[in-house]
Design goal:
The protein is an all-alpha fold. It is about 70% helix and about 0% strand. The chain starts with 8 loop residues before the first helix and ends with a helix.
Length: about 300
């Protein structure tokens, strides 16, 4: 499609209204998408001046076809890469609440995926995180962590929840919404490494900011975290798992559970020189904590830690 003449933009934007046919709405959004591909300031200013932001937000609401909702979210993803338009989209009345509704179980997977993708871009701005949290995004995002959803969807949901968890009130809402048991489920071998990394990272953040370690330990998380320290995990997963375990090990009762979960052998392995220095440091820290119990000291020595610590 040739670039849209800017003088025609305002008249075309009006065709995104409720009375327009879905096919016509998609054609208009394709034209706007073509106009913003070069990302030049003149085109983006023209899009804003034509009232395109609220017009595109309208088809995100109920009553629009799936194809129109997907196209509207995709177009907003492109526009939101611009700092000014990012803020304009998030502050547009009804835009973020519509996105939150699209995360719900009534939406097809493609719509949920696009809505979460757009929300991730908007959440890059701190002020938008507050808007997303205020739109009650936590419950549907926690639902999207479920095992029945694709790995890409789970990863996006965990990413967004981690971003929202930076706000103390949202972090408490995430715990209240039942996030911890769902996150622990994502630590298992059936999850893709990126999902495991996001999940264990979010658990670490929640352990520091919203839930004490006992809450996470009570969800049977420690054996799953110990498994993530092993050779079957990526370095990123191992790093996050060790970081979370450091937080949990601050409680004596959790340190006992960590030792009982056979965490010593993989921690000793992580002392090897071929692991990053940060990983070695976390492993040494944990082994030092576990060594406060005499029985664990013997296990640490038997696992070959001494030559690697010297």
């Amino acid at each position: 499609m040739p670039p849209l003449p800017r003088r025609d933009l305002r008249s075309l934007v009006r065709k995104l209204g409720d009375n327009s046919r879905p096919g016509q709405q998609r054609l208009v959004m394709e034209a706007i998408l073509e106009l913003c591909r070069n990302r030049d300031s003149e085109s983006l200013a023209a899009i804003t001046a034509a009232g395109a932001i609220p017009a595109i937000a309208q088809p995100l609401g109920p009553g629009s076809s799936v194809g129109v909702q997907v196209m509207a979210a995709a177009l907003f993803c492109q526009l939101a890469l611009d700092d000014g338009l990012n803020l304009a989209i998030a502050s547009c009345p009804g835009a973020v609440p519509s996105l939150v509704r699209l995360l719900g179980l009534h939406s097809p997977p493609e719509v949920q995926m696009n809505a979460a993708g757009l929300m991730m871009i908007l959440a890059m701005k701190d002020v938008n995180v507050v808007i997303i949290a205020a739109a009650d995004a936590v419950p549907p995002l926690v639902t999207l962590l479920g095992a029945s959803f694709p790995a890409d969807m789970q990863e996006r949901a965990a990413h967004l929840l981690m971003r929202l968890a930076e706000t103390p009130a949202s972090a408490k809402n995430i715990v209240a919404a039942g996030d911890i048991p769902r996150l622990v489920e994502l630590l298992g071998p059936g999850s893709a490494p990126p999902v495991q990394q996001r999940a264990v990272g979010l658990l670490g953040w929640l352990a520091e900011n919203a839930a004490d370690g006992d809450t996470i330990a009570a969800a049977s998380a420690i054996p799953a975290i110990a498994q993530l320290l092993g050779p079957g995990s990526t370095v990123g997963v191992q790093m996050n798992a060790a970081g979370l375990m450091m937080i949990l090990a601050m409680k004596d009762v959790s340190a006992v559970i960590i030792a009982a979960a056979n965490a010593v052998p993989p921690l000793v392995t992580l002392l090897r020189a071929d692991f990053p220095a940060d990983m070695q440091d976390r492993a040494a820290h944990l082994l030092m904590r576990l060594a406060e119990t005499p029985a664990n000291t013997n296990n640490i020595v038997a696992a070959g830690a001494i030559p690697r610590l010297v």
